[in-house]
Specification:
The chain is α+β, with helices and mostly antiparallel strands and 385 residues long. It has 13 helices and 13 strands. The longest helix has 19 residues. It starts with 5 loop residues before the first helix and ends with a helix.
């Protein structure tokens, strides 16, 4: 399993476009912005100015709830029987804005100025040849910074215009690579969400699977810097995220949040947690018109509970209960049946003792002599639900 870095993918794209634009730029523009700054860096070696700098923003990883839920239709019972679940490529999700940040004004004068200053400070910091307590050295440092500001701010805008013209190409390149490189599993912290039961569980006819958030199935980071392979809370905002040079200098976890975890505020009712996985980690692929279905292992010991929808048919209830009763690796899973509340807009849940179902269910479900064994079993053992 390789450590695919989703953030680095974007940064490498930007670097490639920068190289392309600088290579094709007229010589006088290069000297205006690049060579002059490089010469100043190499000739003037200073320590970092003794000034207050804003502390970088660091995202503190949130601890997810013990159980995260996946709403499913009746047909997705195969997730339990086959022990595989789909992770979906961003462009196949139901939100057309998914993983589509705005690439505009990526190369601005102010951002370029910040990059050059940061590079100069890095050189100064690494050499450490000046005494910051020396007023003369400090004065030289500030003079160098002002010279950089004047050179960039007074220069030609044509270079930045030309580089920004490449933003649509960069955006398209990022989109294509994202479609190929990552897949997303959308989960929620709420099993009692009426809208999600309607939208994702076939109007309450389906079911919900509760997964342990600490299980290796969705929590399997391979390094401290791995931003994927673990549950991440989705961020809801009014405005689409914008990718600029300044954004690219953010901490990797914050940039990851911006790229892959940001959605419109209108989706906030979902209370989503998502797991981003490299596409190469899949265990199976099912070709399908419009986009391949990527399947990942979903072992039974990752499941903590299953909730059957309030409108689920008796046949489905019995089928699921029997599957659980007849599968030892599912005996630890708690089974619930949802019911509409009499007093409020909400659901009540009661536990189903599926392990106590009559042994005769085995015959009724699978006897070849019966035309519809599941329906007949449901009629005989509906009292279980």
């Amino acid at each position: 399993m390789r450590n695919f870095d989703a953030v680095s993918m974007l940064k490498m794209n930007v670097i490639d476009f920068q190289k392309e634009r600088y290579t094709n730029a007229p010589d006088e523009r290069l000297s205006s912005y690049s060579e002059d700054c490089i010469m100043r860096k190499s000739k003037r070696r200073h320590n970092v100015a003794d000034k207050k700098r804003e502390s970088p923003k660091v995202s503190i990883p949130e601890i997810p709830p013990a159980t995260l839920y996946k709403y499913m239709t009746e047909a997705r019972i195969e997730v339990i029987s086959n022990r595989k679940i789909r992770f979906t490529q961003p462009h196949l999700l139901n939100d057309p804005f998914e993983v589509k940040p705005v690439f505009r004004d990526l190369f601005s004068k102010s951002d370029f100025e910040d990059v050059v200053k940061a590079g100069l400070e890095k050189i100064i910091r690494e050499t450490g040849v000046l005494d910051l307590d020396n007023p003369r050295d400090e004065k030289k440092y500030h003079e160098a910074m002002r010279a950089i500001e004047n050179k960039i701010r007074g220069g030609d805008d044509a270079l930045f215009t030309m580089m920004n013209d490449a933003s649509p190409r960069l955006e398209e390149s990022f989109r294509r690579q994202t479609e190929k490189k990552i897949a997303i599993l959308s989960l929620t912290e709420d099993r009692n969400n009426l809208l999600m039961w309607s939208h994702y569980a076939n109007q309450h006819f389906g079911f919900v699977v509760g997964f342990r958030s600490d299980h290796r199935f969705i929590n399997c980071t391979i390094s401290d810097s791995d931003e994927m392979r673990r549950p991440r809370r989705v961020i809801y905002r009014n405005d689409r995220p914008r990718i600029t040079n300044r954004a690219l200098s953010m901490e990797p976890d914050l940039l990851f949040d911006t790229l892959y975890l940001t959605k419109s505020i209108e989706w906030s009712y979902e209370k989503e947690w998502r797991v981003v996985m490299p596409s190469e980690d899949r265990v199976d692929v099912k070709p399908q018109k419009g986009g391949d279905v990527l399947l990942y292992d979903a072992p039974h010991d990752a499941i903590s509970e299953i909730v059957i929808g309030a409108r689920a048919s008796k046949e489905f209830c019995v089928k699921l209960a029997y599957m659980m009763r007849d599968t030892p690796s599912l005996h630890h899973v708690r089974l619930y049946k949802a019911a509409t509340s009499y007093e409020r807009y909400g659901l009540d849940f009661f536990e189903v003792r599926y392990s106590l179902s009559p042994e005769a269910m085995n015959y009724d479900l699978f006897s070849p002599r019966r035309k519809n064994p599941i329906r007949q079993a449901a009629q005989r053992y509906s009292h279980v639900f």
